[in-house]
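User: My advisor asked me to double-check a structure prediction for DUF2975 domain-containing protein before group meeting. I don't want to rely on an old file, so could you generate it fresh from this sequence?
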Amino acid sequence: MKRWYKRSSEATALIYKESIFGNLSPYIMLLRIAVLILALFNIQKGLQAFIKEGLFNFKSSERFKRSGYLLLLLSVSGIIIRLVGMSQTAKDQILSDIIMYLLLLAIGIGLLAFSDVIKKGNIIETENNLTI
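Assistant: Sure, here is a fresh prediction for DUF2975 domain-containing protein from the sequence you gave:
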């Protein structure tokens, strides 16, 4: 026998009362998860184009650039949210979260740099093919 527990609006309000964004907290978390999934999807598609079309191609460059910007957005928003809500969580939790977001920031910057290298390599490869 299944029993479904229905949470009242008062119970939901109490759960998110202490949160920074109040009742919007689950939606903001869902949005941040969607951004992460979109970034990972773009990385995967960039790697697929890498394998299918060779090392230097425009598709991979654009996918990695898009992923880099999404990861930058995710990490900066995460750091801001953590710093705004400092009084609500333990200091060691804040530190570990900020370290994780800084790692995401570094990965995002690395993807942007990698995208630029691929784009410039594509330009050089095209010029070399034209001179031959």
